[in-house]
Design brief:
Number of domains: 1
Oligomer: single chain
Helix content: 40-55%
Number of strands: 5
Largest sheet: 5 strands, mixed
Strand content: 25-35%
Distance between the termini: 44 Å
CATH architecture: 2-Layer Sandwich
CATH superfamily: STAS domain
CATH class: Alpha Beta
Shape: globular
Order of helices and strands: EEHEHEHEH
């Protein structure tokens, strides 16, 4: 099994989580902890960059579903970016594009956030 890593960085008024490796039942708790921490800190403009994520299982998808309402209740959102075709197809198969903004890159996500605050 490949390693999973989350890198957190601030980008202007946004929190970016960069996912690397494989997000599955064994690693989903790491993502859950990162999202809980951001919500607790009232950081609710979250961009998740998937450029280095090779695989996502249903447990990883479940984490996104578990926290999206909490983030939106704070007036924020979770924008998903930089997905390869394999990862996007999993999200698409389960109807995520109707629930989340899935964007090409972080710049597009920031623009989408900013267009909603004007």
């Amino acid at each position: 099994m490949k390693n999973f890593k989350i890198t957190h960085r601030h980008l202007d008024a946004f929190d970016v989580l960069e996912l690397t490796g494989e997000l599955d039942a064994h690693t989903a708790a790491q993502l859950e902890q990162s999202l809980q921490q951001l919500i607790h800190q009232k950081n609710h403009r979250i961009i998740v960059n998937f450029s280095d994520l090779n695989y996502i299982a249903s447990a990883g998808l479940g984490v996104f579903m578990a926290y999206i309402e909490d983030v939106r209740e704070l007036g924020g959102d979770i924008k998903l970016t930089n997905m390869n075709d394999k990862v996007y197809n999993v999200f698409d198969l389960l109807g995520f594009p109707t629930l989340y903004d899935i964007l090409e890159d972080e710049e597009a996500a920031m623009q989408k956030f900013n267009s909603h605050t004007k």
